[in-house]
Amino acid sequence: MPKVVETQSMLLQLILVFVIFSGFVKNGNAGITSAFIRSEWPSIDIPLDNEVFAVPKGYNAPQQVHITQGDYNGKAVIISWVTPDEPGTNKVQYGVSKKKHDFTAEGTVKNYTFYNYKSGYIHQCLVDGLEYETKYYYKIGSGDSSREFWFQTPPKINPDTHYKFGIIGDLGQTYNSLSTLEHYMQSGAQAVLFVGDLAYADRYKYNDVGIRWDSWGRFVERSAAYQPWMWSAGNHEIEYMPYMGEVIPFKSYLNRYPTPHLASKSSSPFWYAIRRASAHIIVLSSYSSFVKYTPQWEWLREELKRVDREKTPWLIVLMHIPIYNSNEAHFMEGESMRAVFEKWFVRYKVDVVFAGHVHAYERSVCFFPHMFFPLFYNLVANVCMLRSQEKKILKETVWWFIQNPINF
């Protein structure tokens, strides 16, 4: 009899918390979350001769320019670009005034092969020691073929700082991809959290794989050269193609898209953490080992202990495979990671988990056994504004019910 009463009590608490959550949604209907309506563009890859893939003019002109955060706290960027004909200079000139570059940083250059394709010369340069909330102008290349861009550093880490992230994943290079990218660029967001599946170059064979990585790099440059895109890997980056003699997973991705993993004491570029504005962001790898005692498991256990909610009240996790998914596509693929990590997400009060993989927008609230916690799993292509006051109201309401259980 006591067991029945306990079960009924828990059920009633669950219903009560659900009613409270409903109060945060107008009319209890979350069917429309944005005024944006996507145009019905064809979901086929854009031809290579389209202007969105245009090669910059000039001999050996830098192309495929993109930046990502280069340290733990947002005072550095990694600038990457490709020169197609020869290595050229691997220096970045930068400063706080347009056309006046007072500082210089020197990077590295490399290339790789994939089947018979040989990449251009891939440059990666760490620019550190930057000031918060400052606009920097940077120049890469040399002579008449040099190109200039800019980026804005984030505000200093502060619990009351508002910051706007774009969430993108499974982008590809179709006409719909262009619609998504243009929509993001009109959103006013300040940085991208990318949840895997970049170029979809693995849909091609032989030399066309590398060619489609190049076209994607030129495609996203219009945003990624000016704002940091924080990367995570998806299944379309694996590119295990033994029929072509290519058996090293993630070869193209790892050569082209660096991450600041060493800054967060990670042993792998596939999982890492950064802090930006009021957010502590953890990137996990769905396609690396994560069970007990593996490097990713050990690293996450320690990284969660480093979270300081007094400085970064938002704790965000990125992964490619959603650990909850009601769609038939990829159903239950994230179950093993859920079994390993969900209890940690709850224990450390993770606010949001963003994932991709399933090409449909879905969000949910996780009611962990015996606990009611507002853990949202959002799927790709959305914009997230961090507002500390809204979060404070929601979390205080829910946690009051956790700490003060009601017996009916």
Explain what this protein looks like in three dimensions.
The chain is α/β, with parallel strands linked by helices and 408 residues long. Helices cover 24% and strands 23% of the residues. The strands form 5 sheets. Strands 14-15-16-17-19-18 form a 6-stranded mixed β-sheet, with no helix packed on it. It has a 4-stranded antiparallel β-sheet with strand order 1-2-8-5. Strand 18 and strand 19 (375-379) form a beta hairpin.
Keywords, separated by commas or semicolons:
hydrolase; signal; PAPs_N; 408 residues; single chain; six-stranded mixed β-sheet; alpha/beta; four-stranded antiparallel β-sheet; 7 helices; 23% strand; disordered C terminus; iron; globular
Give the termini distance in whole angstroms.
14 Å
* Count, helices: 7
Strand order of the largest sheet: 14-15-16-17-19-18
Mind summarizing the main beta sheet?
6 strands, mixed
Q: How would you describe the shape?
A: globular
Q: How much of the residues is beta strand, in percent?
A: 15-25%
Please write the string of helix (H) and strand (E) elements.
HEEEEEEEEEEEHEHEHEEHEHEEEEH
| Average pLDDT metric | 86
Secondary structure class reads alpha/beta
- The parts where pLDDT drops under 50 for at least 5 residues are 24-30, 381-408
Percent of residues in helices comes to: 10-25%
Work out the number of β strands. 20
Tell me the Rg in angstroms: 22 Å
